[in-house]
Amino acid sequence: MSSDKDGASGASIEILDTTLRDGAQGEGISFSVQDKLAIARALDELGVAWIEAGNPGSNPKDMEFFRLAESLKLENARLCAFGATRKKGLAPAEDPHLQSLLSAETGGVAIFGKSWDLHVTEVLRVSLEENLDMIAQTVSFLTERGRRVIYDAEHFFDGFGANRDYALATLKAAWEAGASRLVLCDTNGGTFPDAISAAVRAVMEAFPHGADAGLLTGIHAHNDAGMAAANTVTAVQAGCRHVQGTLAGFGERCGNTALASVIPSISLKLGLPCLPEGRLERLFDLTRKVAEIANVTVPDDMPYVGAHAFSHKAGMHADAILKVKHSFEHIDPARVGNDRRFLMSEVGGRSAIAERARKLEPGVTKDHPVTVALAKRLKALEADGWQFEGADASFELLVRRELGRYQPLFRIEAYRVVSEHPPSDVLACSHAWAKVWVDGKADIAAAEGNGPVNALDGALRRALKRFYPELEQMRLSDFKVRVIDGNAATAAKVRVLIESTDGRNAWTTVGVSEDIIDASRAALVDSLEYKLIGDIERRFKAYL
């Protein structure tokens, strides 16, 4: 199915992404077969060494994925199937689960076994010796049939703390049977870095490592105590050269190690490359692509690839970073494909405003008339309840208006929204119609939705798609409402933030009004115009 390569060329650390297996166990995550194929392509494009793609013995969907996987034509990654050691009382050749792993026809197989004596006697309910036999016989069965075995020592750190000798004995059983990767799993996610370091160093001393030995020690950490990233980096510092996790961090319970956070730390801080040359710069985009397929959002405060990772609000910070970039940034955001953002607010200062304006007009300085006018306008709007620090797209439109580089692409003559409750069995609860004008031509469209904003969004885009068919790819991905003055109760002014995406980019717009529908309309109009202006400018640049 794939070539006999150990992983991504030029990488010092071998990355195994388990989004399709451990990530699929996260609450609210459900992948179709096509989703799994799309994620595998994205991970291969990023350049990970291994993609743990699922458990063919327990899930027909996973077996279907492996059947179709030949069409992927992976360039960097190898697929591996995931399963357990043989069942007690069965020989490996008699175990249907192990047969399903072979039928997946992957170059690698990840096998998990018990390393904590508590689990052996109280959960698996076999003797300690029988568990060692189960590990050894399973690994030997698979290696003899040409599979490269990645052995996951489940609950290793809890087992090491309870019975050090037995935990190490389980690794020895796997290694002597032919496993080429011994992966130490913090399955409960509760271990602290000092214990991780001590256990990894003990394993490094107990087994020969390196190219001659053909053995790598790995780390698989969960985040139940908020330590997954720290534990992973600590394990690498102690000698691990195989790292497992999920790209965006989602997984069982509190999730897995977020590879999008630890790959840059290991690569840029420790000087140990994890991906082929030139792929780290794709991290921001590909993390979002995987999250989009999974129908989750990348946390704004996620290190390296979050929207807030390189955002600056305080005027003093903005001024300093414009003079010396590393004064308030630990790396250049471009190294992971992210971008520096200056948050527009009354505390941001003219330096931040000028920096944002220079993206549209390079000659703008902090004392430029446009900057002064924008600062004054920004303070007035924020006093009226507007807030642009989380609405970059609306602020860019504000800058365009001040620069004289804004031309409305459509005009709404009228709109109407009607809601009824309770909704009937056959009709949605909200309906909207809108009349728009574009270049002297009008169109009227109606739509229904699960709420008034959903219905209005549908009506506006349906009317505009006659003129701008590219809006077909656009959708709203998030909607937030904030009451600005709670003392006014239901008559209070509200602020609406809308996040939109076209599958390639995401942007946020804002609207403010005493009427929640009107505030939503303002944010929707900004969102549509930002998308259209961006598309027009990209086409113009491509033409040139």
Measured as a percent range, the helix fraction is 25-40%
Amino- and carboxy-terminal Cα gap: 43 Å
Q: What is the beta-strand fraction?
A: 15-25%
Average of per-residue pLDDT values: 89
User: What would you call the quaternary organization?
Assistant: single chain
Per CATH, what is the topology of the largest domain?
TIM Barrel
Low-pLDDT ranges: 1-5
Rg from C-alpha positions?
27 Å
CATH first level of the largest domain: Alpha Beta
Characterise this structure.
It is a single chain. The protein has 544 residues and is α/β, with parallel strands linked by helices. The chain folds into 3 domains: 14-294, TIM Barrel (Alpha-Beta Barrel), CATH 3.20.20.70; 311-403, no CATH class; 411-543, Alpha-isopropylmalate synthase LeuA, regulatory domain (Double Stranded RNA Binding Domain, 2-Layer Sandwich), CATH 3.30.160. Helix content is 38%, strand content 19%. The strands form 4 sheets. It has an 8-stranded parallel beta barrel, surrounded by 9 helices. Strands 11-12-13 form a 3-stranded antiparallel β-sheet. The chain has a 3-stranded antiparallel β-sheet with strand order 14-15-16. Helix 1 (33-46) packs across helix 2. The longest helix has 28 residues, at 516-543. The protein is elongated. Residues 1-5 have low confidence and may be disordered.
